[in-house]
Amino acid sequence: MDMDPALWAKMHGATTHFPIAMIFGACLCDTIALCFWHKPVASALRSAGKYAAIIAALGSLPAVISGLVMTHGDMLGEDAPLRWHHIFVWPAFALMISVAVWRGLTREQVSRRGYAGYVGVICVLTALIAITGYWGGELLQTFP
Amino acid sequence: MKPLNVLLTSAASGAAALAAAYALSVAIHRQAAAHSHELPPYVPPAAIASVPPAVLAKTGEKLYFENCAHCHGVDAHGDEGPDLHDIWVSNRRIATVVKRGIKGEMPTFATKLNDTDIAGLIAYIRTLH
After folding, report:
1. Prediction ipTM score
2. How many domains does chain B have?
């Protein structure tokens, strides 16, 4: 049986949206937790943000692997939309792993100031992911 | 664990993830270059079947200087366009790019070069190491 030539493209599409949603969710939970730091709900939101960030990092691994296989290991790309997609995805991927490790190691023992810094970083990460997704959409227009 | 150590470990993890992705990309790239997954595979025109590769590459070299050297450099090490030495793309991909161009980056040569010319160019590009 012949393998579907678009299999890895389909796998990439199927695996990318989960970490994207998780990071957006983590950013939302952490931002609200920072705004309502002294309220009882803040603790639950921080936990939700933490696990969402860790799950997003784990979910990004199949997304990265399927993307690399799909492009035959092309880390940057020679055409404009793919290149822009990759320029934003690699810092986002590294940041996503760093953020997950940081959250896992700190175990909620962090000051409000430190947490505010973290929220700033995760907002930057969310923006990077959003721009990566935009260029991913542009790629679909180029290679429908 | 001290906060600074946590920060350094996190940054190192991100860098390690990038390094792992790079190592994986190199491994996949080498495999893909050896066994192109592009379908359908590139089929050279029948007219060149009897032409020795060295002659074909010589024809391609002439066409390269006339059409490509302006952007890719006379030594093909790149100028406005990329370096063409040891390129890790399939013959089919080279033929497609030459024919269609790349939007905003490279013009199309579909009206200027025929399939035989492109086969010559591919043969020449494959000699660049």
Report:
1. 0.82
2. 2
